[in-house]
Specification:
By secondary structure, the chain is an alpha/beta fold. Helices cover 36% and strands 18% of the residues.
């Protein structure tokens, strides 16, 4: 018998964050415009350094250029090995939420980053690879997180299929956040599509990162609304 997802104590708003990495990189401004026209809640910016994950995407200069084109929240996912070296540059470039990976942090380095981010009035997030469990030090700091990214693909490239084996971990994290009554958004990143978004939100995800799930569709503007509608319906309309 399939285990049924738990009912969460608090339902946070369903939000959609298109990941511009899935668009033509020579036209990233157009990707941001599509997100705006689709009434996305934020834009997801995947920054990869070629060390933490096997790809190189873009840096603070690109974020700064895109910042001039939009007032949407910039959700900057820093898949980099040395975040302390670059955090101030991404803040200055216009990032609103800066998310760092638990795999390269400990309690001391996270607290240092948190101080730097909060001093500039920005939000901090934490991300977990599919195989990474929530560290104890992070569990003790859930109340400080704007978002917690549960990756459902290995970081590096857009267009991968969602790893459904991550769902039990998602449910455990959702339960922790609900039990603590934290405001932390649970962000699902990797392979989000209309066909699986219902399962994701029933397990507790509320912030949906969609790359190919938006930009590979015939009408990417409509795809944003479709994901939101399907997620809302799957969660009982709330």
């Amino acid at each position: 018998m399939t285990e049924q997802p738990r009912t969460l104590a608090k339902k946070k708003p369903i939000m959609v964050a298109p990941s511009v990495l899935a668009w033509d990189l020579s036209r990233l401004g157009e990707a941001v415009e599509i997100a705006s026209r689709g009434k996305a809640d934020m834009v997801h910016l995947d920054v990869i350094d070629g060390h933490f994950a096997p790809n190189i995407t873009f840096g603070p200069g690109t974020v700064k250029a895109l910042r001039k084109t939009s007032d949407l929240t910039f959700d900057t996912h820093l898949m980099i090995s040395e975040p302390i070296r670059y955090v101030e540059r991404f803040i200055e470039a216009g990032s609103d939420i800066l998310t760092f990976h638990a795999e390269v942090l400990n309690a001391e380095s996270f607290d240092l980053l948190q101080g730097m981010v909060h001093a500039k009035g920005k939000g901090i997030g934490l991300a977990l690879k599919p195989q990474t469990e929530l560290p104890r030090w992070a569990e003790e700091r859930l109340d400080s997180l704007k978002t917690l990214i549960v990756m459902t693909v290995n970081p590096g490239f857009s267009g991968q299929t969602m790893d459904m084996s991550v769902m039990p971990k998602l449910e455990r994290i959702s339960a922790l956040i609900a039990e603590g009554d934290y405001e932390t958004n649970i962000e699902i990143d990797g392979g989000v599509e209309p066909e699986n978004v219902g399962e994701v939100v029933r397990r507790g995800g509320n912030l949906l990162v969609a790359g190919a799930g938006v930009y590979a569709k015939k009408d990417p503007v409509a795809a944003i609304a479709d994901l939101r509608a399907r997620a809302t319906a799957a969660r009982g309309g709330a």
